Predict the structure.
Amino acid sequence: MSVEPFRKLTSRTIVLSEDNIDTDQIIPARFLTTTERSGLGKAAFYDWRYDDAGRPRNQSPLSLVEQGGHSILVAGSNFGCGSSREHAPWALVDLGVQAVISSDIADIFKSNALKNGLLPVEVDSKTHRQLLNSPGEEVTIDLESQTVRFAEGEWQAVFEVDSFARYCLLEGVDPLGFIMQQLPQIMQFEKGLK
């Protein structure tokens, strides 16, 4: 899969301060009927965004993603816990979220996100509290320098990303795309084995 290279993102934040947001909240199980990535954005946080009759809940901060200019989600700790559900990052990306910031992101969700073009950013607790208390702030995430900062440069925090996943995001490829880029060298190697 080829995605847009991710180098630097400046966006306003959407804050969901609840801890332990699990993958069933991100995309309820009833929407796991497809292997297609497109169209899942409507199902992202469906029960938070829509009432029982399917009418939009106007108070949901997630409606800001659909309006544009808000592609960084700041979430409470232990974001993405629960079952491994590749549909969860697919739904967030299709909704328009490009990065998730938290103090703690579940390992399986983090792995699925990195493989699907969604940047999970874990920051220290002080930075996390500051972001949770600043909904709508303009924030810049720089993947090359692995920093997060308020757009005005008031503060900066460092985060870490696995080096291979970072390379894939910077180049706009997933792990399979990376292997496919190596195909000429693989074929050359195989010729040498004969």
